[in-house]
Amino acid sequence: MFKGLVGLVTGGASGLGKATAELIIKQGGRVVICDLPSAPGANTAKALGENAAFAPVDVTSEKDIKNALQTTVDKFGRLDVAVNCAGIASAARTYNFKKDQPFDLELFRTTVEVNLVGTFNVIRLVAGLIGKNAPNADGQRGVIINTASIAAFDGQIGQAAYAASKAGVVGMTLAIARDLSKQGIRVVTIAPGLFRTPMMELLPEPAIKQLEASVPFPPRLGHPHEYALLVQSIIQNPMLNGETIRLDGSLRMQP
Ligand SMILES: C[C@H](O)CC(=O)SCCNC(=O)CCNC(=O)[C@H](O)C(C)(C)COP(=O)(O)OP(=O)(O)OC[C@H]1O[C@@H](n2cnc3c(N)ncnc32)[C@H](O)[C@@H]1OP(=O)(O)O
Ligand SMILES: NC(=O)c1ccc[n+]([C@@H]2O[C@H](COP(=O)([O-])OP(=O)(O)OC[C@H]3O[C@@H](n4cnc5c(N)ncnc54)[C@H](O)[C@@H]3O)[C@@H](O)[C@H]2O)c1
């Protein structure tokens, strides 16, 4: 299905990004895993074999992303699909009256910097390489897929920064799709609900159980592979563009 396709996945050393990289390889594609130098990206790529490569990056760094694109060209000669999975969660009340403490502004800045600015940094740079492809019969040169969260719409207590960062990803999706449409690059965002990944496991177990029970159907956390299946569908369907797709078992999070 993806024979000849080259993908780049940020946050590809863990969770949803790792599942996406695994699917691209399984479907015959090649992939560059971009993740922090401290993440097990090299081992992940090694385990996926010669069609996978690792590029250590911080998604907020222009230099790192340009280096990762050079690695992509050196190893695989082109780029067709970029998937932005890199992200961090943060949890704190806007004002903690128990501790008489306002939300830490640096935490707010970092959350937005990684999740929103980092995602945009990757988009604005990968678009240049994807745009060099010859167009297919439909005029398409490639696809960019971003990861928001249902927190963009149903932000819980403590998610002001995280919800803002993900709402920003949702908000910029259509504008970027319009910017890149003439070059035949589609831009789609996925807003996942609850998936069993290391990020989710940061929550206290009572919170995870509460959230899991709140999913109407299926009443469980999603498997990262199920996120990757939506990435596959987006790549395959040329009519998907400029939209955010919730993937959440019809969960609408409570406060
Ligand atoms: C990640 C993906 O994008 C998808 C999602 O968005 S999944 C949704 C993830 N939700 C969150 O991250 C919520 C973040 N919010 C929080 O963690 C907490 O509200 C907070 C830490 C900001 C503040 O919690 P607060 O009640 O003020 O203080 P805290 O003392 O830590 O918690 C009180 C109690 O609630 C529990 N608790 C903490 N966070 C909880 C949560 N999110 N849900 C339910 N219970 C929670 C604590 O275990 C503690 O229980 P205890 O009294 O029995 O020890
Ligand atoms: N797990 C869920 O339930 C869930 C739900 C909604 C949205 N999301 C979003 O999905 C994406 C993937 O989350 P996950 O659950 O797989 O989490 P995860 O923690 O397993 O993976 C996130 C990856 O991003 C990497 N990363 C973090 N900051 C980075 C940076 N500055 N530069 C490069 N890489 C960086 C981490 O090293 C990690 O490998 C995130 O954007 C997250 O907000 C997750």
- Please count the helical segments: 8
Helix content class: 40-55%
Mean pLDDT: 97
* Poorly predicted runs of 5 or more residues: none
- Summarize the helix and strand pattern as letters: EHEHEHEEEHEHHEHHE
**End-to-end separation:** 41 Å
The strands making up the biggest β-sheet line up spatially as 3-2-1-4-7-8-9
Q: Gyration radius, to the nearest Å?
A: 18 Å
Count of beta strands:
9
Largest sheet: 7 strands, parallel
Q: How much of the sequence is in beta strands?
A: 15-25%
Specify the CATH architecture: 3-Layer(aba) Sandwich
CATH class group: Alpha Beta
What would you call the structural class? alpha/beta
Supply the number of structural domains. Answer: 1
Say which CATH homologous superfamily is assigned: NAD(P)-binding Rossmann-like Domain
Bound molecules: 3-hydroxybutanoyl-coenzyme A, nicotinamide-adenine-dinucleotide
Mass-distribution shape = globular
- CATH topology call: Rossmann fold
Features:
Rossmann fold, 16% strand, alpha/beta, 255 residues, globular, binds 3-hydroxybutanoyl-coenzyme A, two-stranded antiparallel ribbon, binds nicotinamide-adenine-dinucleotide, oxidoreductase, Sc_DH/Rdtase_CS, seven-stranded parallel β-sheet, KR_dom, single chain
Describe the structure.
With 255 residues, the chain is of the alpha/beta class. It has a single domain (6-246), classed as Rossmann fold. Helix content is 42%, strand content 16%. A seven-stranded parallel β-sheet has the order 3-2-1-4-7-8-9, sandwiched between helices. The chain has a two-stranded antiparallel ribbon with strand order 5-6. Helix 1 (15-26) crosses helix 8 (224-236) and helix 4 (105-130) runs parallel beside helix 6. The model has no long low-confidence stretch (mean pLDDT 97). Bound molecules: 3-hydroxybutanoyl-coenzyme A and nicotinamide-adenine-dinucleotide (NAD). 3-hydroxybutanoyl-coenzyme A binds at residues 89, 91-93, 149, 151, 156-159, 194, 199-200, 203-204, 206-207, 210-211.
